[in-house]
Amino acid sequence: MSNVGDFSSRPKVALIIGNRNYKRKENRVEHAASNARQLSDVLQAINFRVTLHMNLKKEMLKRVVEFAKTIEDGSIVLFYYCGQCRQVDGANYLIPTDDDRMESDIVASEMGANAASILRKLTDKNESGVNIFILDCVKQYFYNCESPSNSHRLPKGLKTITSSNPVFIQFACGAGKIVSDNRKKNQENLFAEHLLNNIDREDVPIIDVFQNIAENVSQESKGKQRPFFMNGLQQYDQVCLYTMPDEQKIKDCNVRIEELNDELEDIAIKQPQGSGSYNRDASCRLGEIRALIHKLKIRRQNAIQRKYSTLPAK
């Protein structure tokens, strides 16, 4: 399987988790749900089979195990987690949203999901495939007994992770770093914004996609946020997440646009009679869907132009 093209027809699956609703206001990750939904939309549009979970509680590891059972060796497997994480004794623990009793490192290690364990469970099922492991954790997590005024004394960010299996590991910021709470509004979501804008680039190798994301985030943050990645894919880093003939791209865009238009209609139908405006969640979802439809129409038009520009002249 040394040939990059060997992956063009392989299964593509993704597990996406967005954890927002933590007990303490300081711990809430406001963009987590939207990031997870939008990434799910984008990946489905490039033929990933997506499993999406929101606000997972202590069953997080169970959901990972369930997903791992569906992996076929030789696939492209993507894992994305947006939420809180706490470093304990050199290990990274993804924090569930039922964190009422999160008082200490001991509780975090008991209730949290060890990121290295999740990585191992996924990659062990896909030893001859492509694995992408993304942790979008940029905020400081506070135990119930901790004060934000003492945040300078707390462990920062994520510890680097290693794996013996082929995997591309991506952190939203540097290892051992967080995004400062003093940054401008929405600055803590820079990585996700650039991830969503780049992950579905056509015929671009994985390594180039993530290098571009890192460069864009670093540039826009003026060097204050530098996403860390570790490329363990070896020869597989030239695999593209989205590559197929233009005729198939046109068909895929048509199918996905139709599905999204159906979702728009469903939202409108569920709107209460006589209501002059949508609620916050519905308005947010409408914006996400319309933006993706616009993107897909552009992709479809580009594919149509390429297809007909290559036809022989009569």
TrEMBL record:
<dbReference type="InterPro" id="IPR029030">
    <property type="entry name" value="Caspase-like_dom_sf"/>
</dbReference>
<dbReference type="GO" id="GO:0006508">
    <property type="term" value="P:proteolysis"/>
</dbReference>
<dbReference type="InterPro" id="IPR011600">
    <property type="entry name" value="Pept_C14_caspase"/>
</dbReference>
<dbReference type="Pfam" id="PF00656">
    <property type="entry name" value="Peptidase_C14"/>
</dbReference>
<dbReference type="InterPro" id="IPR052039">
    <property type="entry name" value="Caspase-related_regulators"/>
</dbReference>
<feature type="domain" description="Peptidase C14 caspase">
    <location>
        <begin position="12"/>
        <end position="231"/>
    </location>
</feature>
<dbReference type="GO" id="GO:0004197">
    <property type="term" value="F:cysteine-type endopeptidase activity"/>
</dbReference>
<protein>
    <recommendedName>
        <fullName>Peptidase C14 caspase domain-containing protein</fullName>
    </recommendedName>
</protein>
